[in-house]
Design goal:
Chain A: This is Skp1-related protein. The complex is a heterodimer of chains A (about 200) and B (about 325). Chain A is mainly α and about 200 residues long. Chain A contains eight helices and three strands. The chains are: A mainly alpha (about 200), B alpha/beta (about 325).
């Protein structure tokens, strides 16, 4: 059923990137500000297409929403220590890929509570760390590596430029050395032929 | 269970990154920005830095503090020439505030402090310095270069606190250089011992707060030139005749029109009435009358009993009263 939600019993059909559909309660969906802005007042004819996200991710996201339907209104990020056992299990059973997919989907659906808890888990990785310690927890080349990479690229570019310049120079020289004699040769040949023709015609 | 390392934080959606950044300490944000060019670019995109204020401390230590939401969180880099202190973190606080200090070793602390400050300004997209706390006789040889550096890198200083360690040290020239070259926009706390009555500095007008701890050098001429909202002149040498003249000018709206509160050394109210107000129309308000008057910066009011009122030509009233051993003139 896909009609404007007025009670928690109302179910909506959600469509994933695989084209699969599944039910989500109106109460759970209303935690998504994106849904509220797009469909709450006008309803939806048929499945709601969240086709940028796969079924597993969407189910995970709405599993969270279904669970937190009865929790009190969201009032800002919770400290990690304040998370319930259920919350902790929910996060712990995700691998990194799923976790990232969930953040992306939660961010798109604008589910404040879930996004905030996910981000708090990430922030924990960075807290109290200096730059060197942060490098270890972030997938990123370091400034030195980038600089070294840039230097290598600059060297490569300089070398390539040198080769190109040399090639251009050689080509230019070749042109000067080879093309002129050819032109001269052609001209000479033409002259000879002309002379020959003229002489022939004169003959 | 923690997230597996390494984690591609900077590849997350912008709003998610911002959410992560919001829950970090400012120093952690700066640390993160130093990881790579991309990290720096991402860090600079954040839009919530308006709640951050940058403060500088130049005294026995050189510090850069980033305050969050009016001191709820304060993160300070402290330059140190003691290599063993490098990276040390001190953290303390109470229920509603956290202070974190990170020590940063450098062989050339002043230069590195300047570079770090420029970097912090750049990352947090700030052009104003919230607080400059400077003890002018601690880095005497560097004062001019520091002032020149600040003039070049910040448009204004919201609050400036000037100190000196030893009263016998002559800091007047550097104080004047600082005040003539940096724009102080809101508050100035002046804790210097100025010996020269011709101290070469014009007090900026329209400050919210002007506090001069040792104001012997403020004569009548300078007094009538001040036009700030809250003024404290301790140990001033202005005579009773000059105060009387000043008040007449104030009533005629010829001076200090922005004045809301003037705090002076403690004195007896009756004596003040007899000597200063003797030829000024005034009204002694009964002690049973309670009024909420400005008593402290910023515009904090307190219930005051009685007092003596004078009236300005536009109808504004100034009440003189003594509260907590402080002699005050409060305009309402």
């Amino acid at each position: 059923m896909t009609s404007p939600a007025s009670s928690s019993e109302v179910k909506y059909l959600i469509e994933s990137s695989e084209g699969n559909t599944f039910d989500v309660s109106g109460a759970a969906l209303r935690q998504s500000n994106t849904f509220n802005a797009m469909f709450l007042n006008i309803g939806a004819d048929g499945p709601i297409p969240f086709t940028d996200y796969n079924e597993a991710t969407l189910k995970k996201v709405f599993e969270y929403c279904e669970h937190s339907v009865n929790e009190e209104n969201y009032s800002g990020p919770k400290h990690q220590d304040d998370l319930s056992k259920w919350d902790l299990n929910f996060f712990n059973e995700m691998d990194q890929k799923m976790f990232i997919d969930v953040i992306n989907a939660s961010n798109f659906l604008d589910i404040e509570r879930l996004t905030s808890y996910c981000c708090e888990r990430i922030a924990r990785m960075l807290r109290g760390k200096n730059t060197q310690e942060m490098i270890k927890v972030i997938t990123l080349p370091t400034a030195e590596e980038l600089e070294a990479k840039q230097k290598v690229e600059e060297k490569k570019a300089a070398a390539a430029k040198k080769v190109a310049e040399k090639a251009a120079e050689t080509a230019e020289k070749t042109e000067t050395l080879e093309e002129l004699p050819v032109q001269q040769l052609v001209q000479t040949t033409r002259n000879k032929l002309t002379r020959k023709y003229l002489s022939f015609s004169n003959e | 269970m923690d997230l597996p390392n390494p984690f591609p934080i900077l590849r997350l959606p912008y709003l998610a990154i911002e959410e992560v950044f919001k829950s970090l300490h400012p120093i952690e944000i700066i640390n993160l920005s130093l990881i790579s060019k991309r990290a720096k670019a991402v860090t600079k995109q954040m839009t919530f830095y308006s709640k951050y204020d940058i403060c500088l401390r130049i005294d026995e230590g050189l510090g850069i503090a980033i305050r969050v939401e009016n001191k709820l969180v304060s993160c300070t880099y402290l330059m140190t020439s003691d290599e063993r202190m490098n990276g040390n973190v001190e953290e303390y606080g109470g229920n509603d505030y956290i202070v974190r200090r990170v020590y940063k070793y450098s062989k050339n602390p002043i230069e590195e402090w300047k570079q770090l400050f420029k970097y912090v300004l750049d990352i947090l997209k700030k052009q104003t310095l919230h607080l400059l706390f400077i003890t002018l006789d601690d880095f005497v040889d560097h004062n001019v270069s520091i002032i020149d550096f600040l003039r070049k890198n910040v448009k204004s200083v919201t609050e400036c606190q000037l100190y000196q360690d030893e009263v016998e040290n002559d800091v007047e020239e550097h104080a004047a250089y600082l005040l003539n070259n940096l724009k102080v926009s809101n508050e100035l706390h002046f804790h210097l011992n100025i010996k020269n009555d011709n101290f070469d500095w014009k007090i900026p007008k329209n400050l919210k707060e002007l506090y001069i701890h040792d104001s012997e050098w403020i004569g009548y001429e300078r007094l009538v030139e001040i036009d700030c909202e809250h003024v404290t002149l301790r140990d001033n040498q202005i005579t009773n005749e000059q105060w009387s003249l000043f008040l007449k000018k104030w009533m005629a709206m010829e001076t200090n029109q922005n004045l809301n509160y003037l705090r002076l050394d403690n004195r007896d109210l009756e004596e003040f009435r007899a000597i200063v107000l003797h030829d000024i129309p005034h009204e002694v308000v009964d002690k049973g009358v309670k009024r909420n008057l400005i008593f402290w910066f910023p515009d904090e009011t307190e219930e005051i009993n009685g007092g003596i009122d004078i009236r300005r030509i536009d109808g504004k009233i100034a009440t003189f009263f003594v509260q907590d051993n402080v002699f005050s003139m409060s305009v309402h």
